[in-house]
Amino acid sequence: MIDIEALEFHYAHGEFHLTVPRMSVARGEKVAVIGPSGSGKTTLLNLIAGIIRPQQGRVTVADQAVSSFSDAKRRDFRISNIGFVFQDFELLDYLNVLDNILHPYRITGALKLTSQVQQQAIDLANGLGIGDKLKRYSGELSQGEKQRAAICRALLPQPQLILADEATGNLDPRNKGRIIDLLFENIESHGASLLAVTHDHELLPRFDRVIDFLDFRTETAA
Amino acid sequence: MINSLYIAWHYLVFNKLRSATLVACITLIAFLPMALQLVLTESEQMLQSRAASTPLLLGARGSALDLVMKSLYFGDEVPGIVSMQAADEITDTGLGYAIPLYLRFQARNKPIVGTNIDYFDFRKLKLAQGRMLAMLGECVIGASVADEYGLLPGDSIVSSPDTLFDLAGVYALKMNITGVLERSHTADDQAVFVDLNTAWVIEGLGHGHEDLSKTRDSSVILKRTEDNITANAKLFQYTEITEENRDGFHFHGDASIYPLTAVIAIPNDTKAATLLRGRYLENQQYRIVRPTEVIEGLLENLFRIKSVIDSVIAIVGLATVLAIILVFALSVRLRQRELTTIFKLGCSRMTAVKLIAAEIVIILSASSIISAGLLSVVLANAETLVRILIFN
After folding, report:
1. Which residues lie below 8 Å from residue A25, measured CB to CB, with a gap of 6+?
2. Which of B12, B118, B144, B326 has its CA 20 to 30 A from that of B3?
3. What ipTM was estimated for this complex?
């Protein structure tokens, strides 16, 4: 699903420099990425998603060389193939849960909002246990409910790849386990791949593989 | 665009206070100059049409503007007094005819216009209901007076004393309404019209009381001679003119020196108008003015003031527009995180711009609708507004 070769990236300002000699994630694989803060884990997710482009190297997602695409093409590819789950959920406070889940359909031309999609969103929310919260605003939800809504938003377009950036970082231990269960269940049912950045070592055994981000010196089977 | 409007609408509704403030600012900036223009256009129309239909106006020396505003638009400022003789003199010249006006009193805050029957023909006023005034103590009222107080022919209206504590001054007179005028969209709609004699009765120059020669109460008699009876203040004076007591009303003194506030002079032709004006050029007591000239002077001042107000509004408007731009710029900065999220979700820069644009469109639309609503209210009440702002 993901193939990275000789990736080099640095921001225009600052001393940050990311080097990934080689990295891959297979279809349907669930991979955790660990590493110290500031080592470039989020930057790597952004590079894979095509939000930013590397100065050197190649990023291939679903057999498409994302790093060589134009901005518009990268965006279209991301919309259709990649779902993002954020640590801070990134729900819009002025939209209710259902509108937040459907938000990608309203801000992108590549996804068409139909009544069928709306029904799928409701079904997905029911499956994730927030079916009764669809008319609530994010400010009225618990942390766990917010992350379920964010997962719904990421999963609704049925992407081939889910990128999760500290998706359980703001959750209590009980919610953490339940959210990971739900995420894994849904990913497995769609046959999607998961690349999750995490600091939570308790969750690592649940992943197929763990990548230690520290200079990419260690890559171990979970 | 529909999706952008949908999202923008939810954002604006969620941030009610910010949205309402922006709408209020834009509405005020849009509404004020337009309302001002509307009121001024209306006032220009009202002032000019009335002035144009009044060829000449004679009054006491003093403010020509007060004279015109009082005589044509029944304003508050009472000009100097002229005598009835002044009206007679104009008629005597044979250069035209005169319509006397006496405007000092009010009934229910509406001006009482003391005049003669020629005034109605001159102003082309027609009766909507009832009949024209014919007897002492009768009045006809303008359409607005009738509407405002629900008055009809057969009802009565009482004149207001000059001051509440003026016990020795003007007494209230109960007047019988004989007719209601058709709406003319002029100051006449707001007036109560009486015969000059009735106005002079309100003034106290004419009065009615019980017949002293027949009174049985001797305590009211101060002095009795062969041809004159003098009464004291105990003598009952009528405050309403009825069929029974009408004959008891009488005037004292020389009617030619009875007061008027102005005389409308209607010359026979242009030459007569010039001659009439010439006659009063050197007159120390009276002046004769062309209302159109006075009103043009007033309008010049109004439009000078308007241009100053326009400049102030333009500066305030510019400052508001800049403040609104700042609000949106700061809002974009504050929403940087939200924008980053939607970019990650796949939103293009163009779509993000569309979202902000949709918010601006909604705010501008709301402001436009409210401004239009307010303007329609101003338009519907322009006549009243002009009356309050300019004539009173």
Report:
1. A1, A2, A31, A161, A193, A195
2. B326
3. 0.82
Of the partner residues B6, B13, B348, the one whose CB lies closest to the CB of residue A75: B348
Chain A residue numbers with beta carbons less than 8 Å from the beta carbon of B1 are none
Residue A177, token pair as written in the block: 């386990």
User: Which domains, and CATH codes, for chain A?
Assistant: 2-91+158-221 (3.40.50.300)
Residue A141 main-chain phi, psi, to 5 deg? -105, 155
* A-to-B residue pairs, Cβ atoms closer than 8 angstroms: 59
pTM greater than 0.95:
no
Q: How far apart are CA A55 and CA A69, in angstroms?
A: 13
Q: Chain A contact for B350, CB < 8 A?
A: no
Q: What distances in angstroms separate CA A129 from CA A71, A124, A125, one per listed residue? A: 36, 9, 6
**CB of B358 less than 8 A from some CB of A:** no
Q: Residue A80, CB half-sphere, CA atoms under 13 Å: how many?
A: 12
Question: Are residues A94 and B15, on separate chains, in Cβ contact within 8 Å?
Answer: yes
State pLDDT tens for residues B8-49: 999 999 999 989 998 998 898 888 888 888 888 888 888 888
- Measured between CB atoms, does B334 come within 8 Å of chain A? no
A107 contacts B347? CB cut-off 8 A: yes
Q: Domain residues of chain B, as ranges? A: 2-46+298-391, 56-205+252-289
DSSP string, A42-100: HHHHHHHHTSS--SEEEEEETTEEGGGS-HHHHHHHHHHHEEEEETT----TTSBHHHH
Output phi, psi for B151, to 5 deg.
-95, 145
Give the model confidence (pLDDT) of A128-169 as tens digits. 888 899 999 988 988 888 888 998 898 888 888 999 888 887
CB distance A52 to A43 below 8 Å: yes
CB B105 within 8 A of CB B159: yes
Coarse DSSP helix, strand, coil percentages of chain A, rounded to the nearest 5 percent = 40, 25, 35
Tell me the HSE value of B193 on the side-chain side, using a 13 A CA sphere.
Answer: 29
Beta carbons within 10 angstroms of residue B115's beta carbon: 23
Side chain identity at residue B113, one-letter code:
V
Pair of tokens at residue B45? 């129309």
